[in-house]
Amino acid sequence: MTVAPLIFRILLAGTALANAAGAAAQEASPAPQETEVAAPPPGEDKPPPYEQRLIRLAEILGSVHYLRNLCLNEPQDSWRRSMQELIDKETADEPKRRERMTAAFNRGYRTFASVYTACTEPATLAEERYRAEGATLASEIVARFGN
Fold first, then answer.
1. How far apart are CA 76 and CA 2, in angstroms?
2. What distance in Å separates the CA atoms of residue 133 and residue 47, rounded to the nearest whole number?
3. What is the pLDDT along the chain (147 residues), one digit of tens a residue?
């Protein structure tokens, strides 16, 4: 399985959006949170070494998907589609990993859905910060684990 090409495409999209947000959003971006990945149950393959970062990226994509659509007149589905493509490529024969990544995306989405019901300045700032964090994280994954 090769994660680099798909994450690289997500990185390019995230970088373009992060650049549009400006350097201020990148400087103010929150520290990446390490999402703990439990050891696989007996009989399940050991997850790849970048699994924690990938789970965090899934959470970020869910958050960005919600926040971007909150402030747009016409909602877009590009972040959800990117996540679905990543899940399909990364977890083809691993239903438990697929479940964890889907849950992470949904957790990111629901976290902000429970806080923001209207487009506000803090919602816009949060979206910019998460895009910047996602771009940084995707870049790190590709640089360290890409083929």
1. 27
2. 23
3. 455 555 545 554 554 444 444 433 333 334 444 445 455 555 567 888 999 999 999 999 999 999 999 998 788 888 889 899 989 998 888 999 999 999 999 999 999 999 999 999 999 999 999 999 999 999 999 999 886
CB atoms within 10 A of CB 92: 11
Q: For residues 48 and 86, is the Cβ–Cβ distance under 8 A?
A: no
Angle CA 39–137–41, to nearest 5: 10
d(CA 64, CA 135): 12
CB count in 10 Å sphere of residue 12: 13
First to last CA, the chain: 10
131 closest CA partner among 6, 4, 21: 21
For the chain, the domains span: 4-30+57-145
